[in-house]
Amino acid sequence: MVDVSVHSATPDPSVGDLLAAWLPTQRWYPGAGEVSVEPWLAVTFAGPDEDDADGVSGPLSDGGAVPTAEPHLVLLLVRLTGAALPGGELVAQVPLVLSDVAHTGLGHIGTITTQAGEVAVHDGGANPTGWVTLLHAMGVPGDLDVLTERARVLAGEQSNTSVFLPAVPSPSGTGAMLKILRTVADGPHPDVVVPAALTADGWDGVPRFLGALEVDPDDTEPVHLAILSELVPHAEDGFELACDLASRDESFVGHAGALGRLLAELHERLRRVLPPGPPLDAGRFVAGLRVRAARAVAEAPTELGGRADEIGALLDELERRLAALPAPPPTQHVHGDLHLGQTLYGDGAWKVLDFEGEPQRPVAERTAPDLPLRDVAGMLRSFDYAAAVGGAADPALWRADAAGELLAAYRRAAGLPPGLDEGTAEVALRALVLDKALYEVVYESRHRPHWLPIPLAAVDRALDPSP
């Protein structure tokens, strides 16, 4: 049994200097522009042969003891403050493995000199001691060499750190995936709550939830710091699979139909296992779309200025249709950030993952009930990019075939969205696709202007859906 302890963090200045140089180089680091970093809490761990967890934090906390020679994990929670951050403030998790210099290993950040001597500091997300300490804290037994056999950090992860652990025991014997959350929010984490509920309901459309590490700071709600789920065998990233098929000019229609059915099942299960949302406030819903559309037009006036009237007309039509319904449609829990990159295909079946939404947004916003068509729109936008990135011979046709089958399969399985008639559902989906495409236009205009034709074509299709 591992004892987990939480206490104030007061790092040695040398730790602060090291992290100040290292943090901005990490892809998951949310800081941009002028950001101040204030250490907040240190989470430490002690095994059955150690007196307590407070005595191993070394140069990071008020516990203050000299670090042991053997590598050990400390989770440092820091408050980030800056105008560019959502809400002006975030809490980031920085897992650090500390050791003497003789035990320098994977993920080495640097060596600091303290009053007690030299300490090697490692990125705990890239170090086996960090992985195994988290596994033990979540109740997974086993020795380091056994649990980390063939383990590796997944490349390309931007918001968190995910570790592939095929030797970790699991119900199906396939191993486990450890996700270390880099942005920490108060209260239950949606990527714990939703997969846990779906797994408990027996649904196999998500990787099986195996556990999570939760700590309880004295002055705030409990927070989740790491999540463990069962490894999906022989899995391919959904976006990479779609791009590969497009590159060979092979149809995605069969997979699109399977994804449509999966999405319908997901929405039905979410209605069953999580509390219902309130009736849709149509005025507020459309107002949110208007605000985001106006911001996009203002930030990309060359590309969108000439389309502003048509954008307003579509949103006017949606507002009229929603107001004419006999009753407001219900809302429900949805994925919220669904696209092909949030899916896996393995052993002939699709699975949905990553229910956390945008990590830098407040949990209340990320988990707000919504129309299920929000997820449909997100998946449709993925097909455009897969066709273009993959280099399909006829990207428009490849996308149209996949999109048509996804919508048909979803409709066959789910029927009309609850509370919407066919015409209103069609206009609502167009508006939600437009909402995503406008965001993409702004992003591409800033970062990848040669890709602007992809979202601009989607904007035009949403505004004029006629063939």
TrEMBL record:
InterPro entries: Aminoglycoside_PTrfase, Kinase-like_dom_sf
Catalytic activity, EC: 2.7.1.175
Keyword annotations from UniProtKB, A to Z: Kinase, Transferase
Single GO MF descriptor: kinase activity
Entries under Pfam families matching the protein: APH
Broad EC category: transferase
Aminoglycoside phosphotransferase domain ranges (all copies): 256-415
Protein's UniProt name: Maltokinase
Source organism phylogeny: Bacteria, Bacillati, Actinomycetota, Actinomycetes, Micrococcales
